[in-house]
Amino acid sequence: MSAKLIDGKAFADGLIKRVGVAVSKLNNRYNFKPGLAVVLVGENPASEVYVKNKILQTEKSGMVSIEHRLPETTSEKELLALVKSLNEDDKIDGILVQLPLPKHINENAVINSISPSKDVDGFSIPNVGLLSTSGEGLIPCTPLGCLLLLQDHLGDLTGKNAVIIGRSNIVGKPMAQLLIKANCTVTITHSKTKNLEGECKKADILVAAIGSPLFVKKEWVKNGAVVLDVGINRLPPEGDKKGRLVGDVDFENVIEIASAITPVPGGVGPMTIACLLRNTVTASCKRRNINEPEM
Ligand code: NDP
Predict the structure, then answer these.
(1) Separation of 20 CA from ligand 1 center, angstroms?
(2) What is the pLDDT of residues 114-145, one digit of tens each?
(3) Domains along the chain?
(4) 269: exposed, middle or buried (C-beta count within 10 Å: 0-12, 13-18, 19+)?
(5) CA angle 122, 289, 31 (to 5 degrees)
(6) 54 classed as catalytic
(7) At what angle do helices 268-288 and 141-154 cross, to 10 degrees?
(8) Dihedral, CA atoms, 24, 292, 50, 250, nearest 10 degrees?
């Protein structure tokens, strides 16, 4: 058997188009365009690429995009002051502070200084709390993207055994909350899990968010499982060629046993940006107490 490819790029392109339609509806009906502020501190090359992409897609979808680039030497106090001014700016509906921040800045303090109603990454404590209770808050973009892909591919997820590798605050834990809400039976695994292979083998849905290239082997995957690969890893360069991007799953071999799988690149990655745009529209409507257009 060869797994079906779950085309995250195509799904994300469709979602970004629907976000664009929602933005023009809001502009026609209520005379505003949702605004997203992206804050980048320092010169991390990967962050530069993410931020450039986020800004490009925000502008493409017709939203207002504001960019703040701050030097590596920015103090925590200065960054907190910028976030405060963005919280108070009525034209801004979403605030994204690109992580990681330089070591001298306390990430948690910055994340939790963002007004929960503008926290489009969904990382602040009130949004984390809402996700694990009512589900009414803003939801972290990568796990939300994974859920949309799973529902698009499988429909109702009720009763599925879902296994997540990784327990980070930005992927593993919120992914678990979303899958519990979707009526899956969820297992979270991590670096201290005993018999990781045995746990993975029980999965109807396997989500890999580890940060270790080609880590998940064919032998760990149940026949017919659906595999979502969140990992983004660059292999070492070969000769004069830049090392290629791979996920956390040994894709070439796992496709022989899974029923469906996301590729890297072109799987989960594009969904993260699409969900960021969707969250910005959601935040803009909630803040104004108006109905959100369908997306
Ligand atoms: P973290 O480093 O925060 O978390 C990694 C998790 O993997 C931890 O919970 C860790 O366990 C677990 N882990 C590490 N080694 C093992 C092991 N040998 N066996 C089992 N579990 C292990 O990473 P993130 O969650 O932030 O990111 C994970 C990957 O996803 C990265 O490649 C990242 O680049 C990518 N990513 C992709 C995004 C996208 O848009 N597609 C967005 C965000 C991330 P423990 O807690 O015990 O240390």
Answers:
(1) 32
(2) 999 999 999 999 999 999 998 789 999 999 99
(3) 30-117 (3.40.50.10860), 141-270 (3.40.50.720)
(4) buried
(5) 105
(6) yes
(7) 110
(8) -120
pTM beyond cutoff 0.85: yes
In this structure, what are the phi and psi dihedrals at residue 242, rounded to the nearest 5 degrees? -65, 140
Distance CA 233, CA 213 (A): 6
Distance CA 228, CA 198 (A): 18
Q: Which of 50, 168, 271 to mutate to test the pocket of ligand 1 (most atoms within 8 A of CB)?
A: 168
The candidate with the shortest Cα–Cα distance to 284, out of 30, 1, 12, is 30
Q: What would the two tokens of residue 264 be?
A: 């890297």
The closest-lying atom of ligand 1 relative to the alpha carbon of residue 192 is 47
Of the residues 98, 119, 160, 229, only one is catalytic, namely: 98
| CA 217, 244, 266, 247 torsion-angle sign | positive
Q: What is the DSSP letter of 160?
A: -
Residues with CB under 6 A from ligand 1: 142, 165-168, 170-172, 189-193, 196, 209-212, 230-233, 268-269, 272
Distance (Å, whole) CA 35 – CA 287? 12
CB atoms within 10 A of CB 159: 9
| Cα–Cα distance measured from residue 133 to residue 273, given in angstroms and rounded to the nearest whole number | 25
Is residue 33 exposed (0-12), middle (13-18) or buried (19+ Cβ within 10 Å)?
middle
Q: What is the chain's alpha carbon radius of gyration, rounded to the nearest angstrom?
A: 19
How many whole angstroms separate alpha carbon 271 and alpha carbon 251? 19
Name the active-site residue from 57, 93, 118, 121.
121
Q: Is 229 an active-site residue?
A: no
Query: 218: which DSSP letter?
Result: G
pLDDT digits (tens, 9 = 90+) for 253-271: 999 999 999 999 999 999 9
DSSP bridge pairs for 95: 37
Question: What is the dihedral angle through the alpha carbons of 231, 171, 224, 5, rounded to the nearest 10 degrees?
Answer: -50
